[in-house]
Design goal:
Blueprint lengths: L1 H28 L8 H13 L1 H21 L15 H10 L1 H16 L18 H23 L10 H31 L5 H4 L1
Helix pairs in contact: 1-3, 1-6, 1-7, 2-7, 3-5
């Protein structure tokens, strides 16, 4: 019964982590000309600049959230729910196989979110890189497969996490709607100031 409570908890936890990861990577990587075409990258940047504070905060919030949620799954503290309590041997093996990326995510969490490291020479914040999206994609596939291995042990259940990818389309629609709205707004301003307020329009002349 306790193991089922833990698997139910981490079904939600991992679904949220994967959703937040997908939202983060769409916002962060839409600006990269190495991922999308130059034209599309410029368009995504333009849209994000319309509401720059919102997008910069959202990008960081999604990043913090997915890292914290993922690492929660592997918390060794006896007071915490974690995947260790379902099957410690299998969790140990998964942790070893994915050790480098879990270590890098822990470093980002510890050094950027929990506290900030200062370079003693320059007095500036030390930068800690987030693993590449290619490596994170592989890691999340491994994590979803691993979770289903554990949940089959507990109650013969299988979870499809496809719904967590739908957020990518939601963010895309947000981009498009903001782009449409901004173009309509600019067109309305153009009509107002170059037509409606022009005292030489035909209705004012004759």
């Amino acid at each position: 019964m306790e193991n089922k409570t833990i698997t139910d908890h981490f079904r939600r936890n991992i679904f949220e982590a994967y959703s937040h990861y997908n939202a983060w990577k769409v916002i962060a990587y839409s600006k990269s000309k190495g991922v999308v075409s130059e034209k599309m990258a410029e368009r995504y940047v333009q849209v994000q600049n319309y509401h720059s504070a919102f997008f910069s905060l959202s990008e960081r919030a999604f990043l913090i959230s997915f890292i914290m949620l993922v690492l929660h799954s592997f918390d060794k503290d006896d007071r915490s729910f974690s995947l260790w309590k379902i099957d410690s041997e299998k969790t140990e093996l998964f942790s070893l196989q994915n050790e480098s990326i879990l270590t890098e995510l822990s470093l980002v969490r510890n050094k950027l979110f929990a506290h900030s490291d200062i370079d003693p020479q320059s007095g500036t914040l030390v930068s800690y890189d987030v693993p590449s999206v290619e490596r994170l994609d592989v890691f999340f596939k491994n994590l979803l497969d691993f979770y289903n291995t554990l949940s089959r042990e507990v109650d013969q259940s299988l979870t499809l996490f496809d719904g967590a990818e739908e957020i990518k389309r939601t963010v895309e629609l947000l981009f498009m709607n903001l782009y449409r709205g901004e173009n309509v707004r600019l067109k309305e301003i153009d009509i107002e100031w170059t037509w409606e307020k022009d005292d030489k329009k035909i209705s004012d002349i004759i």
